[in-house]
Amino acid sequence: MTKDQRPKSVAPGPIQAAKRRRQLYPFLFHMGPVALSVCSVLLIGLMALLYLSQLNQAISANNTLLALHAQESALQRQNQDLVNTIAKEQSPAYIAAQAKHMGLVPADPSTVQVVIVPHLRPIPSDDLKQRFKP
Question: CA–CA distance from 28 to each of 44, 48, 79, 85 (Å)?
Fold first, then answer.
């Protein structure tokens, strides 16, 4: 039986198998120990640099979030103070005290004069609602 007539299921000779294995080895196995060490140090340095970059971005995002939370709480306190001020200034007792402080006195109902304008028609409330619609 010659080489050309050999069945395909039979493995090739040991020399050809060794050559084929050598072709399948990755590039790193052909490198010497110094070159492999340098490549390893460079890869580890690159990974560390990427890690530190991601860590810096996370810290920056966290600081921004903390600043926004502080601003939100300050605005909520300011809003609550304004709501309390409005409630206080709309109370009848506060209005009466401020009017008295400005020198105003309650009017005597018997001395109040009412002005009547002839031919004045009242404005219908529905018409007002339509005029002032946003």
Answer: 16, 22, 66, 76
* Residue owning tokens 């304004």: 82
The span from the CA of 5 to the CA of 9, in Å, is 12
pLDDT of residue 53: 97
Determine which helix (DSSP H) or strand (DSSP E) holds 19, and give its type and residue range: helix 14-24
State the Cα–Cα distance between residues 15 and 37, nearest whole angstrom.
Answer: 32
Q: Which long-range contacts (CB under 8 A, 24 or more apart) does 48-57 make?
A: none
Q: Would the pTM count as exceeding 0.70?
A: no
What does the alpha-carbon distance between residue 86 and residue 78 come to, in Å, rounded to a whole number?
A: 12
CB 36 within 8 A of CB 28: yes
